[in-house]
Every structure is written in C-alpha cells, then in structure tokens.
UniProtKB/TrEMBL annotation:
<comment type="pathway">
    <text>Nucleotide-sugar biosynthesis; GDP-L-fucose biosynthesis via de novo pathway; GDP-L-fucose from GDP-alpha-D-mannose: step 2/2.</text>
</comment>
<feature type="binding site">
    <location>
        <position position="272"/>
    </location>
    <ligand>
        <name>substrate</name>
    </ligand>
</feature>
<feature type="binding site">
    <location>
        <position position="143"/>
    </location>
    <ligand>
        <name>NADP(+)</name>
    </ligand>
</feature>
<dbReference type="GO" id="GO:0050577">
    <property type="term" value="F:GDP-L-fucose synthase activity"/>
</dbReference>
<dbReference type="InterPro" id="IPR028614">
    <property type="entry name" value="GDP_fucose/colitose_synth"/>
</dbReference>
<feature type="binding site">
    <location>
        <position position="205"/>
    </location>
    <ligand>
        <name>substrate</name>
    </ligand>
</feature>
<dbReference type="InterPro" id="IPR036291">
    <property type="entry name" value="NAD(P)-bd_dom_sf"/>
</dbReference>
<keyword id="KW-0560">Oxidoreductase</keyword>
<feature type="binding site">
    <location>
        <position position="212"/>
    </location>
    <ligand>
        <name>substrate</name>
    </ligand>
</feature>
<dbReference type="GO" id="GO:0070401">
    <property type="term" value="F:NADP+ binding"/>
</dbReference>
<keyword id="KW-0511">Multifunctional enzyme</keyword>
<feature type="binding site">
    <location>
        <begin position="15"/>
        <end position="21"/>
    </location>
    <ligand>
        <name>NADP(+)</name>
    </ligand>
</feature>
<feature type="domain" description="NAD-dependent epimerase/dehydratase">
    <location>
        <begin position="11"/>
        <end position="240"/>
    </location>
</feature>
<dbReference type="GO" id="GO:0016853">
    <property type="term" value="F:isomerase activity"/>
</dbReference>
<protein>
    <recommendedName>
        <fullName>GDP-L-fucose synthase</fullName>
        <ecNumber>1.1.1.271</ecNumber>
    </recommendedName>
</protein>
<feature type="binding site">
    <location>
        <position position="190"/>
    </location>
    <ligand>
        <name>substrate</name>
    </ligand>
</feature>
<keyword id="KW-0413">Isomerase</keyword>
Length: 311
C-alpha cells in the first residue's frame, strides 16, 4: 500500500463508524489523505438525495460501506426495508458522485449476492448463475445493483466504479446485539450467557451442516485499501480468506474457548441459510496483491477475548 496514492486525495467513507468502517478509517489515517470525511448516519442520511449530494461535494474517492445489515432473522423480519434502504442509498450516492465528478467509487457488495447454489469455491463469473438464498435475497440483490450501476456508468460516462465482494467478517468490535449480529458474534454471546447463567443446553438454528468462510476485519480493511489504490476494472472481485468451516465445527471452537460445559442442540425447524460458502480469492491476489493474513483460530480468539473484556 502506498502513502503517495492517498497524499492528495479527498476521501469519503460512508458507514465509517460501523464495524468494518472503524477499522478501515483507522488504517486510512496512517496514510494521511488530504481530507478524510467520515460522517455519521445522523449527519448524512443516504436515503435522502440532498444528503448524498452534500456528502460528495469536493471529494475525489468514495468508499461506500454503509448499509442496513443483520442476520437471518433480521433479514426475514424486514425484507422490504433491507431491499429499499440498501438500494436507494447506493443508487443515489453513486449518481451524485458521478455528477460531482468523483474520480473513483469503491462499492462494497456482499457474498449474499451469489446464487444459493454456487459451485465451490465461488468464482466471480458465477455471480449471475441463479437466485440468491431466499432469506437474504432482498439485501443481496440490492447490493448487487451497485455492480450493475457501476458497470453501466463506466460504459456510458467513463465513471471509475469498482465492486468488491467480501465474505462474512469477524473480529474485535463486531456487533454482538442479537438483532444485528452474524453467526460468530451471535454464538460468542450465546455461549457466554449460557455459561454465565449455568444453562444446561443451548439451541442453535439449523442443522449445523452449512459451511461459512470468514475474513478477519483488519484483513478486509487492508484489501479494500489495496483495491482502491490498484484496481480499476469493471469486474467484481472477491475478498476472502479462501477456507470454509461448518457451523457445527465453529460452535465447537467457540464452546471450548468460552468454557461452556452444557449440551448443544440444533433446531432443524429453523433455516440454515446458504448451504456452503467459500470464495475463490485468486483474482484479488492477481489484480491488486491481496491475500488474507490472519489465521482463523487466532482471529477467533482475539474476537472472543475482545468480547469478554468489553462485555
């Protein structure tokens, strides 16, 4: 990564106070861009066109992280809001960035954009070969439209928009609120509370068979910065660690680390979500030299230790 690239850049980071955003902004500050604008959601509501216009004024590069995000239950309760809010924020922001002559727009998509049944490992060229997993399709498709919009704007206006597809993130500072959390923070919190309350059993949604890939948040932040510096192509790029682990095995690792001694029950009446997730990350390495560094077990330990300290 190059301090020279950022030296004269005026940068907007949306969602910069969230989980990924906090780590990204911390890393960006090391490179000392000319201006780093990180508005809160109260300052800039990207669902409002005027706020989008205001946010990109006098900006060279946009990194769009903002979104309404949650786990399977959250997605099932408010699919309309998940679709509309995520779609309208991205669409309006990119349009206003184009009109403001922003030089580069970095869209952060989601692995939920992939079809429900995608060959393992997920390759970028398979992105359009089917419908996403139903429980998070509204969110996945809303974010996927940033890719369509960016490619269309590149073709018509010569607008430099790139699109990154990160897998599920984890790490210190993650969201542990059950309303919004993904599987790792949700399981950490549940095992901790079960141990604290001396519960004899803990129930986990689904069968435990689905697999997931996880990317340490600091690796994700580094990958986004490398892509912002070096990648200028129209095609989507995966950001991942290149491995998968079953929910059953993941639960076992967290159970052991927390020290819970009760019984784990899988509720098969609840949805599993997508059957398998693992990305082909070769394109990111080839295009801008990105490769994840954090060992999963070490990263998981750091995440659990952070939660225990800050609970």
């Amino acid at each position: 990564m190059s301090k020279y690239f950022w030296k004269n850049k005026r940068v907007l980071v949306t969602g910069g106070h969230g989980f990924l955003g906090t780590h990204l902004v911390k890393l960006l500050k090391i490179y000392r861009p000319q201006r780093l604008y990180v508005p809160t959601a109260k300052e800039i509501d990207l669902r409002r066109l005027g706020h989008c216009r205001k946010s990109v004024n006098n900006i060279d590069l946009v990194i769009h992280l903002a979104g309404i995000v949650g786990g399977i239950g959250f997605n099932q309760r408010i699919p309309g809001k998940m679709f509309y809010d995520n779609l309208i924020m991205g669409t309006q922001l990119m349009e206003e960035a184009r009109k403001a002559k922003v030089k580069k727009f970095v869209s952060i998509g989601t692995i939920c954009a992939y079809p429900k049944y995608t060959p393992i490992p997920f390759k970028e060229e398979n992105l359009w070969n089917g419908y996403p997993e139903e429980t998070n399709a509204p969110y996945g498709l809303a974010k996927k439209m940033l890719l369509v919009q960016g490619q269309a704007y590149r073709q018509q206006y010569g607008f430099n928009a790139i699109y990154l597809l990160p897998v599920n993130l984890y790490g210190p500072g993650d969201k542990f609120d059950p309303e919004f959390s993904h599987v790792i923070p949700a399981l950490i919190k549940r095992f901790f509370e079960a141990k604290k309350l001396n519960k004899k059993k803990i129930t986990i949604w689904g069968t435990g068979k689905p697999t997931r890939e996880f990317l340490y948040v600091e690796d994700a932040a580094r990958g986004i910065i490398q892509a912002a510096e070096k990648y200028n192509g129209p095609d989507p790029i995966n950001l991942g660690s290149g491995f998968e682990i079953s929910i059953l095995e993941l639960a076992g690792l967290i159970e052991k680390r927390i020290g819970y001694k009760g019984k784990i029950i899988f509720d098969r009446s609840k949805p599993d979500g997508q059957p398998r997730r693992q990305l082909d990350t070769s394109k990111a390495k080839r295009e801008f030299g990105f490769k994840a560094k954090m060992n999963f077990k070490i990263g998981l330990r750091k995440t659990i230790n952070w939660y225990l300290k800050n609970n």
